[in-house]
Design a protein that fits this description.
alpha/beta; 5-stranded mixed sheet; 4 helices; 20% helix; globular
């Protein structure tokens, strides 16, 4: 079993509130718009990190992390990308591939809107953790925490941090 903290759109912002939750999990997954290596260093100092770059991330960040991160953890296939859309409105770049490869869990960021939706057509769980940083239109900073046990995704929690 693995406990996962999922966050996105930190835009160079990291604080003790985020780090408190990092300490409680086995891995941290960041879905882009990281903003700075200070964020990466703070996360990696505490836990293993899987990440993708986002549209605001510079060439150094893009050299460190992929556009798409596809992997299997326990028995769950995962596809993380920053700009991917959501069920019935996937980004054209990934739409065809997504329908062919069909990961069990498809994770995006970018919108700053927390969403967890099940795509009945493709049999895919979609997650977007919202935004953990302070830049953007969102009023509440959010993250997701969940567990992966064998092929099951369980104990999903919405984490709301203080208002921006």
């Amino acid at each position: 079993m693995k406990k996962i903290l999922l966050l996105s759109d930190t835009h160079s912002y990291i604080d003790d509130q985020i780090l408190k939750f990092v300490k409680q999990v086995d891995e941290v997954w960041h879905v882009g718009d990281i903003g700075s290596f200070e964020v990466i260093d703070a996360l990696k100092k505490l836990k293993p990190l899987r990440a993708v770059y986002g549209n605001i991330d510079d060439s150094l960040m893009r050299a460190e992390f992929p556009l798409d991160n596809k992997f299997t953890i326990e028995k769950v296939s995962v596809w993380m990308t920053h700009i991917g859309g959501y069920p019935n409105n996937y980004n054209p770049r990934i739409k065809e591939d997504l329908s062919i490869k069909r990961p069990k869990l498809f994770i995006t960021g970018h919108s700053h809107i927390l969403k967890v939706m099940f795509d009945k057509k493709l049999n895919i769980l979609h997650m977007n953790p919202g935004a953990a940083g302070k830049y953007g239109f969102h009023t509440v900073r959010t993250m997701l925490r969940f567990e992966i046990n064998e092929s099951n995704i369980t104990n999903l929690e919405i984490i709301e941090l203080e208002k921006r």
